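User: Can you predict the 3D structure of NAD(+) diphosphatase? Sequence below.
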Amino acid sequence: MRESTPPPLARAHLDRDGVGRGDAARSGRFDADPDARVLLLHDARALLTERVEGAPPVLDLRSPAEVSSVIAAAGSADEGAAPVVLRVYLGRALDDEGSAYAGAPIEVWVLDDASAALLEPEEARWAGLRQAAPMLSDRDAGLFTQAVAISNWHRSSAFCPRCGAPTEPIESGWSRRCTNDGGQVFPRTDAAVIVLVTDADDRVLLGSNAMWQSNRFSLLAGFVEPGESLESAVVREVGEEAGLEVVDVTYVASQPWPFPASLMLGFTARAVSAEAAASAVPDGEEILELRWFSREELAAALPEVGFPGRTSIAGWMLEAWFGGPIEASPQGWGA
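Assistant: Sure. Here are the predicted structure tokens for NAD(+) diphosphatase:
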């Protein structure tokens, strides 16, 4: 199973410019560069706009001078608070369908509540990644995904894992340094496998997770354990969650899932036999219900049964198997 387009959050059109991150003078040049652009982030939501009425939204990228002047003119509502909580250099935009920002350096600025309200008080213009990603261009989807992922890491890495002292951002936001011993910590991503299991009749196996509302189904998935290969993780997870032995484990694609810090690695697999498929049972802890769906049964189940949204790799893989969009699928849930 191969889709002609990558999963929604695996799209990107950006030079991450790893070399430029270590340039000590880069931040000063960025602030003075009229071509530089800032991706505004508040509460993991980005500011969107419409270039043309009725057209798909785009990221509302603003110049650092504009953002700074608005904040400076009004000041932060919280005495002594930093209006820009975090700055991270994302890289340089590539040419994206004639984008005016081609070659421009881009940073994400994470804002406090007061600054976000100053720059855009209309809540509807601030959108989450799960909601917005399917509508965005490759460049904007990649920028938004990267911004959420790196800001999540900073929020969870404020203290040194060795001694507990505070850490501070360095290397343009791509590392943090312990203020006590000077040790560095770097961003980490948790690997998780997600698998589309089929039987001899090409039905797909979907499970309902205990953490979801009833009547929601998705592909089986789980984190990779230390010392475990991806293929072994697929076999183990399906065995644990469905009591099912699978064969022909095949890698399909991957995408980041920054909620908060996963990399989803998609696979297909096949039930070892018809007898094994018929005897699949949920573990009763993580998975409360299992169902085999043919394409006709899946279509008939809509809209009463919820399937993963299009931002997820689960939705992307399921639609590839289904052969087209699953129109009534709810948006924004499932990995």
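Residues 8-154 form one domain. The first helix runs from residue 26 to 32.
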